[in-house]
């Protein structure tokens, strides 16, 4: 029977149709339905060995499959004139649009205002450099019997880094801190690579550098290549003619019957013979400074190598630059002939430039990235033609002393002429009001304080600030019994002690310079009750203190026109009673600085309409920084002055 059914498949098929009934939930499909079937080989069969196939049938009649035009259908439209025109039109529109965008971009680039140019200024051109005479800054010694009691130290500088930062100072220049023979100012060096114990230790210096670096403050040291102290091991060996040290200094046979007289007529800085007889060597040694500072023979390659090693030592400690002490006196005429005029063979020798170039090359090796430039500074008595040679050799900044010579007898025209002479030098200048070799500006007439402060900080160039300038410290009162300056003692000239008295920090004994029971190395200026650093603004004085004014002008100095702007106008007007100058940087606001230089207090009105139609006051010497001031219509209103020394700064 089974075989019969198998032999009649048609009959079997008919029987199966009769049994075909829809199951619950089953979807009926017909031959016209689109069917999607998914075979999933996964689950278990009826028995462990049976394969299991799951059929998933979708009856979604909304599903439509579009396979696009066939080749034959597409070709029917390819050459149709209508579609040909459409293609050409779209092609043309694409290229027209592309070209239009290209032209628009070019027009925008050419005609749109460009970003204002910012010159590549180095940090030593933009920052205020604060000079510290370390013996007079602050003494942190507790025990009066300790080494260095009464003498400022490195820890004292560390303690006041926040105060200097608050002022806006971003660069410190510290005078000699090297191990010395203890002769006054530390220039009688005994070891150029060691810290003198009176100032602290190498660890203290490293801490100072770490703190200043964290605050992005630069650190400059004195570099003293011209001479050493008499007690330096080199000089002791040179006197004994030991090995290479024999020619480390400049020796010559003395003259005269006693063989003790100078070999020529060269004079030192103080107008006295520049030679001193040494009884050990029985020759004369040369010294441009004091006899205690014998000059090194910088023509000797071994000495040059020593100087290079000193630079590299401190550069490796993170120092950002050097003030080259005695740069004008590095080399002398080799023939040692008499001079027709003083300094002919001993000052500004052209061979100096070769030395400075070699030092510049060393510094450049440590100036590996923008912002890490190393600076070389030097001081000169007067700016002259030879100064340009030092710039060409590698000196970056030479401070002008013009403002140190300014007094009440100079009117607006006098001031304009003096400043113009320096500005026209054509090199990057520095400005200073005083330093450790010149009288303090705080001792001029009081009405000139903010005049000088404004010129110092807002004229183009680097501002060098001597410690105490921010509070207009005055010259100290030094009695003959208190004189420490060896130059004054030896040559009976005015003592420099008056310019180097201890810094005044607070009210009280010793003004915060040292502990009450410690005697300062120089007397504190008792005239300091009116100028101590932190009094005026803490008491809320209605008139800004010099300290506050300093901060305001340093902040103003950071504006673009004062950073790199040119002096477009500088002149004396109104019968030489008003001096003004402008600072202009293309693309940035310009500034007018106007100063009343009248001989007496009186009402003065002057219009600056030739500069701009409208101006806004941003600083006034009696009020400090001004914000929200209404603009002044210069065509209808003049600027009014009433006091000598009154200063305005306007933006336009």
UniProtKB/TrEMBL annotation:
Domain of life: Eukaryota
Keyword Secreted belongs to the record: no
Glycosyl hydrolase family 13 catalytic domain mapped to chain residues: 131-500
Region (Disordered) residue spans: 1-27
UniProt xrefs under InterPro entries: GH, GH13_cat_dom, O16G_dom_2, SLC3A2_N
PANTHER family with a match to the protein in the record: ALPHA-AMYLASE FAMILY MEMBER, NEUTRAL AND BASIC AMINO ACID TRANSPORT PROTEIN RBAT
The protein's name: Glycosyl hydrolase family 13 catalytic domain-containing protein
Species: Sinanodonta woodiana (Chinese pond mussel)
Taxonomic lineage: Eukaryota, Metazoa, Spiralia, Lophotrochozoa, Mollusca
């Amino acid at each position: 029977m089974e075989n019969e059914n198998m032999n009649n498949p048609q009959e079997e098929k008919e029987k199966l149709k009769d049994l075909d009934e829809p199951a619950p939930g089953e979807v009926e499909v017909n031959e016209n339905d689109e069917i999607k079937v998914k075979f999933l080989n996964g689950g278990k069969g009826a028995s462990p060995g049976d394969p299991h196939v799951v059929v998933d049938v979708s009856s979604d009649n909304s599903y439509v499959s579009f396979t696009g035009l066939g080749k034959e259908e597409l070709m029917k439209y390819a050459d149709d004139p209508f579609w040909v025109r459409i293609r050409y039109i779209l092609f043309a529109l694409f290229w027209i649009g592309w070209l239009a965008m290209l032209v628009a971009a070019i027009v925008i680039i050419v005609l749109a205002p460009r970003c204002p140019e910012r010159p590549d200024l180095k940090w030593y051109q933009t920052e205020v450099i604060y000079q510290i005479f370390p013996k007079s800054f602050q003494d942190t010694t507790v025990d009066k019997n300790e080494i260095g009691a009464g003498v400022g130290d490195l820890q004292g500088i560390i303690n006041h880094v926040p105060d200097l930062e608050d002022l806006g100072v971003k660069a410190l220049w510290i005078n000699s801190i090297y191990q010395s023979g203890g002769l006054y100012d530390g220039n009688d060096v005994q070891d150029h690579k060691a810290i003198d114990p009176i100032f602290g230790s190498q660890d203290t210096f490293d801490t100072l550098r770490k703190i200043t670096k964290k605050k992005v403050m630069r650190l400059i040291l004195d570099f003293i290549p011209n001479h050493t102290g008499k007690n330096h091991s080199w000089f002791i060996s040179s006197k004994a003619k030991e090995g290479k040290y024999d020619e480390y200094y400049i020796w010559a046979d003395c003259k005269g019957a006693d063989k003790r007289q100078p070999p020529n007529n060269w004079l030192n800085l103080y107008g006295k013979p520049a030679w001193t007889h040494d009884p050990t060597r029985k020759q004369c040694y040369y010294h441009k400074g004091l006899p205690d500072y014998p000059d090194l023979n910088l023509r000797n390659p071994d000495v040059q190598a020593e100087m290079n090693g000193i630079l590299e030592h401190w550069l490796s400690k993170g120092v950002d630059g050097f003030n080259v002490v005695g740069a004008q006196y590095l080399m002398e005429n080799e023939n040692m002939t008499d001079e027709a005029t003083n300094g002919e063979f001993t000052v500004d020798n052209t061979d100096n430039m070769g030395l400075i170039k070699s030092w510049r090359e060393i510094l450049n090796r440590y100036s590996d990235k923008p912002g890490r430039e190393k600076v070389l500074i030097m001081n000169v008595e007067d700016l002259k033609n030879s100064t340009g040679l030092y710039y060409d050799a590698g000196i970056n900044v030479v401070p002008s002393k013009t403002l140190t010579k300014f007094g009440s007898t100079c009117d607006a025209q006098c001031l304009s002429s003096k400043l113009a002479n320096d500005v026209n030098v054509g090199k990057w200048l520095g400005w200073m009001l005083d330093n450790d070799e010149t009288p303090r500006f705080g001792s001029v007439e009081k009405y000139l304080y903010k005049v000088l402060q404004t010129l110092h900080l807002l004229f183009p160039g680097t501002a060098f600030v001597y410690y105490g300038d921010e509070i207009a410290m005055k010259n100290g009162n030094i009695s003959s019994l208190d004189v420490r300056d060896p130059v004054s003692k030896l040559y009976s000239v005015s003592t420099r002690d008056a310019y180097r008295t201890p810094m005044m920090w607070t009210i009280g004994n010793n003004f915060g310079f040292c502990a009450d029971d410690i005697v300062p190395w120089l007397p504190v200026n008792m005239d300091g009750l009116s100028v101590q650093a932190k009094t005026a603004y803490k008491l809320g004085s209605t008139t800004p203190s010099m300290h506050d004014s300093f901060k305001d002008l340093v902040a103003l100095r950071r504006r673009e026109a004062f950073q790199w702007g040119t002096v477009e106008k500088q002149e004396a007007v109104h019968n030489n009673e008003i001096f003004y100058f402008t600072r202009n940087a293309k693309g940035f606001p310009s500034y007018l600085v106007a100063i009343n230089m009248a001989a007496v207090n009186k009402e003065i009105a002057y219009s600056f309409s030739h500069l701009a139609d409208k101006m806004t006051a941003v600083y006034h010497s009696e009020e400090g920084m001004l914000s929200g001031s209404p603009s002044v219509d210069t065509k209808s209103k003049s600027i009014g002055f009433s006091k000598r020394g009154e200063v305005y700064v306007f933006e336009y």
